[in-house]
Amino acid sequence: MPNPLSPIVPILDLLGRELKILPATGGAVEDLQHPDQEEIEDVVMTRGDEQIAAFSETPEPDVSNIYKPTPPLFRQEKHLFRFFIDGSIRSYFLATGIEGTRSFPIELAQVGATVVRREDTGQVNVYSHKQKVLLLLPKQNQGISDTLWDKLRKIGKPDFLEIIDFTLPDALSDAKRDPRDKAGAKARSEMHKLEIELIESTDTARNEDTWLILDGSVKFVEEDIWESWKSRSSPHLIGVAKSFRKDPMFQFGQRPSQRKDITGILAGLPHAHRTAAFSADGGKIAFWYVRLREQKELDYPLMGVVKVEIPRPDLSPVPAELADLISRVLVAERNVTPYGLDHRWHCSLYPTHIAEQVIKNRFYSKDVLMGCIKWPKP
């Protein structure tokens, strides 16, 4: 049986002939993702929202009490969330390439996204899945010449394999300086593009009784999709972040005593309660926090809490009863958890965990990868 990644061999042969290659030990080294990568992304994507001073909820909450009870509402009573989307990435450092006086990393990444659909019985099935293999290289002043880039583009390759210039600007990689970090951030951006495609695949199925949960921030959704949402009363989706930035400040009035950091906000958030909804991104997003687990079960106050984002394309505040409904359903979602399989077990939603496992199980193994990473001998 031929190696499914064999189309990459002619590409590596060309790079090996045109560049001086310093291979990674053993042929490839897996880049392990930073455990707080999602938090780093939240910092990047919410740049400009460090100071939170406006609510995005109607009727407007009382600043003296920003917590609201949200007792669990189970699927048998209200099956609101039926689609769950997650993305995953696995990246490898292959070699350092040298052309002229320029040296740069050569990286390979597998990115994938899956949307699962849950039936009324609770059975979860794969609704749609996409994955790609990316060869990540820098171009021109920071990497390979235009001549070599053109030669790479002319090599025939399957649709699942793409050659990506990781110096091209995007929200994530622009914040990185180290070339390997930029390559990893570019791969994550490509992963989010797959997630966006899967969101669009559910457009006709989503309605007021069929919502979607995206694992992470909705700010990755592209502008043209935001424009299409303006014609709808609601896009019927939310983003749920298990990790989020820890440095925003909340100002509820003019006095210094009315200023709190996020720890002060979440330490007082009781179990099965949510905070008021706040405004972000100029009113395009309403967000709030929900405590899924009691603090006595956990190590510190910020554990067991998720950040919920809902798009507001018409810049309107979110109705309080809708925020309550979403939060109550989320509290009920937390009961089955992959304890011990993920360090974020305390705020994991089980269908999202299933989607992540689908992706990882469909990635090519390291043995398949290593079978193709053979640089030509000098």
Keywords:
378 residues; three-stranded mixed beta sheet; 18 strands; alpha/beta; eleven-stranded mixed beta sheet; elongated
Can you walk me through this structure?
Strand 12 (249-251) and strand 13 (259-261) form a beta hairpin. This protein is of the alpha/beta class and 378 residues long. The model has no long low-confidence stretch (mean pLDDT 87). 26% of the residues lie in helices and 28% in strands. The protein has two domains: 1-32 and 88-201 and 363-378, no CATH class; 33-80 and 209-335, no CATH class.
SSE arrangement:
Blueprint: H1 8-18, E1 20-23, E2 29-31, H2 37-45, E3 51-52, E4 57-58, E5 67-69, E6 81-99, E7 102-118, E8 124-137, H3 146-154, E9 161-165, H4 179-201, E10 211-215, H5 223-229, E11 237-241, E12 249-251, E13 259-261, H6 262-267, E14 273-275, E15 278-280, E16 285-291, E17 305-311, E18 318-319, H7 320-333, H8 350-362, H9 366-370
Parallel strand pairs: 3-12, 4-18, 6-10, 8-9, 10-11
Antiparallel strand pairs: 1-6, 2-6, 5-14, 6-7, 7-8, 11-17, 12-13, 15-16, 16-17
